Amino acid sequence: MVAKKLTGGQIVCEALLNEGVDVMFGLPGGAILPLYGELSKYPGLRHVLVRHEQGGAHAADGYARSTGKVGVVLATSGPGATNLITGLATAMMDSAPVVAITGQVGRAAIGTDAFQETDITGATLPVTKHNYLVTRAQDIGPTIHEAFHIARTGRPGPVLIDIPKDVFQEEAEYDFERDSQINLPGYHVPSTADESQIQKAVELIDAAERPVILAGHGVIISQAFDELRELAEKAEIPVVTTLLGISGFPEDHRLFVGFPGMHGLAYASLTLDESDLIIAVGSRFDDRIVGDPNRFATGAKKIQIDIDPAEINKSITADAPVIGDVKAVLGQINPKIKSTKHTDWVSRVEHLKAEHPSLKIRETDELLGQHVIKALSDVTRGDAIICTGVGQHQMWAAQHYRFTNANSWFSSGGLGTMGYEVPSAIGAQLGNPERLVWSICGDGGFQMTSMELATAVENNLPVKYAILNNNHLGMITQWQDLFYDGDFQAETYTANPDFVKLAEAYGMKGIRVTKQDQLEGAIREANEHNGPVIVDFVIEKVDNVYPMIPIGGSVEDLIEESL
Amino acid sequence: MTTSSNGASGFKQRTIIALVEDKPGVLARISGLFRRRGFNIASLAVGRSEMPGLSRMTFVVEGPPHVVQHVAAQLDRLVEVVEVQDITEKNIVWRELALIKVNSPSEHRGEILELANIFRVNVIDIGAKTLTMEVTGGRNKINSLIELLRRFGIREVIRTGRVATLRGALIEGQEEGAHAVADSVEHFYTPTAGDSGSV
Prior knowledge:
The complex is a heterodimer of chains A (563) and B (199). Chain A has 563 residues and is of the alpha/beta class.
């Protein structure tokens, strides 16, 4: 094939198309205008104009997590690029494959403090899996293909490519065959694990009397849903899902337990604590699950299956580390383990569920956050895609939404980014036009990124926004109540907008719900509306999320609601 | 200065060698990683390796034991790091180099040259009032020489980081860097940072 002579901007577009990109989020500016100048020649690349680059990064992240494809975001130099940082850090912590392309000032101006210049490759070093400053148009093609390879393989993550304005304009040859050859001697992607590691894990599983699976985000990233289910069923092992492992295992399955940890279900935390073997499948033993590492499941041996060797023994010592891709590793383990029953242990877990009814909602006439999530779960039959922000609404959603569909829960688990919910739902809806997408928001986080409602409206994306509105930063209020002697500071929002009017101002449908008996009707009305909707659920002002294990604690410190 | 593997603060020292791609920004990536993971670089030496496009780095890092253990794994996550070896517990040889510029008035020159002779170091420059010597070896040897020269008035000390490599196998079929009997390192002497350059 004869290589074509193209401008740098054209090479970006051709390479993106060759990577299978069909949609990208972005906001133009001076340094990246030469790229935007080429977009009209490439109608296969749909550009979704966002209102803020952070929203673009979160939308790309939501698109990526919900499709398994790489999400793409474009931004200009300087402030455009720095606005991406929260989104990139979110994607980094949660291993989401995102490629960000930023414009940079012209090569001659680099290092001169030029207008809208910032060292974005320097600034994003800690929040990207890898990044590049491309200084020649001929390097654009190979760099983009390498970036996509790095973003989506191994433990996925965000990759940033910074391209100076004049490099977009420079001409070079692009040859897909040649430029997509990956030559990365230092980048190894584990797939199957060593037999010796598998053998050790199999022995521990076969010997266990009270095993539990701790299924993390790795299950979802690796799409190992069937393999996980096979492992659980073959050896009758209860399944605890981490916050980001939610929707990795069907929640109507008899072996499903729930999510553990700081605001997890008491019986899920207790199941881990009483087990004699924890099989961590694509989970990194996050501090929100472990609490005090010296008091975490002390009677349990630990198998840790992870694609990232750096996660092994980081917080918890693994008795049997297994390095590899979760799907491949479970494919190795499953045929080797004994088919067995753990009848007594499973009934013990059922007993724990009965003794600690963490999902029971207290009797009240008020509208509680839990009521809203329960109603959403019931009306949508657990079938919707759910995006959340961070805080009380997130924890209630994780507890009370009963997911029946794989890979349907998108939440900023690692970085804890308030505001993730509004744009990530846009990305998830774009990637899944046939599915119902509900974004569950707090009134705090919602206002961090609510400008992206315009993006939803502009692109006819029928996202349903549920605001659990208590005029408070609910989790802040809870912590100040429990840990700062009730000395409340900066926790109340006294000037929230009228969210129904805000919806109408954006040309959306707005619905307000203040009572329990309005829930079902309002949710149905939102579902049936052919367009984006805000439902303003006015919930009880001050309420705490329970159960709770305070930071650095263990199940001994479990606080449960007295009902 | 920390001179043993368990320094005053209880921190561990580890010696790590890495083969890295010779690309712009690699050093910034590595130093950034060390900073944000709480690893402290005691010394760092970089230079081209025998392979084109690849540089070899030797690090001596310090930090709490549970943190320092992860240095190699974290380094290996970097795309441009081709190979990492934590050789702390291996059988290794290493050297450091220092240039020491010392006052050398004629009445003391003989004495200084005698020291240089005993330490088997090269004198690489003599001026009217100063003399510069080149010393290679382990940290203790260099430190000792510096101490002995101090009374003449040291003008400058320029030190490199440690460079290290695994000792060759003594027996065919044995791995490089293995101790004399491979099955038990505890019974054998494990070198510490302050030891002389060859153990």
